[in-house]
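User: Just a sanity check before I run the rest of the batch. Below are the C-alpha cells for the first item. I only need the designed sequence back.
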C-alpha cells in the first residue's frame, strides 16, 4: 500500500465531514490492540480478611455453608 492510497473509500452516499471524522476515529480506535487497565494489587490486610480456599459452590445449603468455619 502506498502513502497516497486511501485506507478506505465511500462507495455510496455523500458523508458529512463529521461522519467521516467519526468513521476515522472508530477505525483508528479498533486498529489498536486492546489494553485493559492494569490490575490493582491486593494488600496483605485485604487478603487476610478473605477466607482461605475457594468459595462455597452454589446450591442447596450453600448459604449456610458460607457462614461455617472451614
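Assistant: Here's the designed sequence for the first item:
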Amino acid at each position: 500500500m502506498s502513502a497516497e492510497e486511501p485506507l478506505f473509500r465511500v462507495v455510496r452516499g455523500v458523508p458529512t465531514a463529521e461522519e467521516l471524522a467519526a468513521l476515522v476515529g472508530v477505525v483508528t480506535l479498533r486498529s489498536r490492540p486492546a489494553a485493559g487497565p492494569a490490575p490493582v494489587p491486593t494488600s496483605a490486610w485485604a487478603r487476610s480478611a478473605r477466607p482461605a480456599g475457594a468459595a462455597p459452590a452454589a446450591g442447596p445449603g450453600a448459604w449456610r455453608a458460607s457462614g461455617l468455619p472451614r
